[in-house]
Design brief:
Elements (H helix, E strand, L loop, with lengths): L6 E5 L3 H12 L3 E6 L12 E4 L5 H11 L3 E4 L6 H9 L3 E2 L3 H7 L2 H11 L7 E4 L2 H11 L3 E5 L9 E3 L5 H11 L7 E5 L5 E9 L5 E3 L3 E6 L2 E7 L5 H18 L3 E10 L2 E8 L9 H4 L4 H10 L12 E7 L7 E4 L1 H4 L5 E5 L10 E8 L3 H14 L1 E4 L1
Parallel strand pairs: 1-2, 1-4, 2-3, 4-5
Antiparallel strand pairs: 6-9, 7-8, 7-9, 10-11, 10-12, 10-14, 12-13, 13-16, 14-15, 16-19, 17-20, 18-19
Helix pairs in contact: 1-10, 2-3, 3-4
């Protein structure tokens, strides 16, 4: 029987890491929060914090040796995976495992795994490492196309391009939004989809797989704007998505929760992306489920049973975005945002804001998805950001 407290180290301490930290603390764990800037959201409730460059292999290893955590949890893509691979060989536990962390931090590796090794249906795609190569790839795939950096987070650097004239700007946006040292982009066929979903998939220590009810979501510029649960799928669509998610998650191995994204185009189910951690669209589970995606992630990591996953009739989320750059953030309108029943606000606690940065989320339950969405949208609209 496992003894507590377990010491968990978060590599990445944003809003998702903060909720993982909260779920861990509720189970008696010690949490060490790491990020590239001080006072990151998870640091505000962690036991210890470290401000480091997580892409620096030696600095990362030095920090891990300093604290000797029982479990290392990468919460962002921009991590020196080579160090995690070395540390795992030394006996450190990495979530879901070091190999999976390395594959999923780069869009090319996870797309190649899904499409070429597992034969999953994906959009047609190619890679380019220069503007000239990008032009060739786009012409070959056909217009319009989606251009993304090989490595980025929260949709940064993504562009929809309808003609050749837009490629130069798309290349510049991709380079500006990329994380790490990569100068490569993925060029994708644009899928005219009916619905985009996240299927939260939990792989437990015994290898068994659990699924949360599908979450529908909408994006703008590659970044999620709203989500709702449950998404309306046919039984055939759901079975296809679950089979595909199970296939790729089992290939990656390890334990924990994976956010697997799909396009639903008529009866076709098309694999899009995968994150080996809680997903931003899954913030809705904080109000929709008996166990949120963060609690499920931590239970799977610690080997704690998950007897059931139950959801309410309908729930929705709407992000709260910064409209301008703010150096020292304060909020107003929270009392108005919480004036309606079955509505919650989650303020992330980011110390600074840049225009378009996600700063919080409104959550709501309703009798229908439409009612829940209306309530979440209304609550989010009340929140204003200003200088403290």
């Amino acid at each position: 029987m496992k003894k507590f407290p377990q010491t968990l180290m978060l590599l990445g301490s944003g809003e998702l890491g903060k909720e993982v930290a909260i779920a861990s603390k509720r189970l008696g764990c010690e949490v060490i929060a790491c990020d590239r800037y001080p006072n990151a959201p998870a640091m505000q409730i962690a036991d210890k914090e470290e401000v480091i460059n997580m892409l620096d292999p030696e600095e990362l290893k030095k920090t891990i040796y300093k604290h000797m955590p029982d479990i290392i949890i990468p919460e962002i893509e921009a991590v020196a995976v080579e160090s995690l691979i070395e540390l795992e060989k030394e006996g450190f536990q990495v979530i879901p495992n070091a190999k999976a962390a390395g594959i999923t931090m780069n869009r090319d590796k996870i797309r190649n795994l899904a499409n070429q090794k597992l034969g999953l249906k994906t959009a047609r795609f190619d890679y380019a490492s220069s503007l000239k190569e990008l032009q060739v790839c786009a012409d070959s795939i056909g217009w319009p196309v989606i251009v993304k950096p090989i490595m980025s987070s929260s949709g940064k650097g993504q562009s929809f391009v309808s003609n050749k004239e837009g490629l130069e700007n798309a290349w510049e946006i991709a380079m500006a939004g990329a994380r790490g040292n990569s100068n490569e982009v993925i060029v994708e066929e644009f899928i005219n989809f009916n619905l985009e979903i996240t299927l939260l998939t939990i792989r437990q220590k015994n290898g068994s797989i659990l699924f949360c009810p599908a979450i529908g979501h909408k994006q703008s510029g590659g970044d999620y704007q709203c989500s709702w649960q449950p998404a309306q799928l046919t039984n055939d669509q759901l079975e296809k998505a679950q089979d595909m998610a199970k296939s790729v998650v089992n290939k990656l191995g390890g334990i924990g929760l994976f956010g697997v994204e799909f396009f639903i185009s008529n009866e076709e189910v098309i694999f899009s992306e995968l994150s080996p951690r809680p997903h931003d669209t899954g913030l809705v589970t904080l109000i929709s489920q008996n166990l949120s995606e963060f609690e499920l992630h931590v239970r799977a990591i610690l080997g704690i049973p998950i007897p059931s996953i139950n959801i309410c009739q309908a729930a929705a989320s709407r992000v709260i975005l910064a409209k301008e750059n703010i150096s020292n953030v304060a909020y107003q309108g929270i009392e108005k945002g919480l004036s309606e029943s079955d509505t919650e606000l989650l303020i992330f606690g980011k110390p600074t804001a840049q225009k378009g940065r996600r700063m919080g989320v409104a959550l709501a339950k309703g009798r229908t998805i439409e009612e829940a969405q209306t309530k979440a949208d209304k609550a989010a609209a009340f929140i204003e950001l200003l200088e403290k």
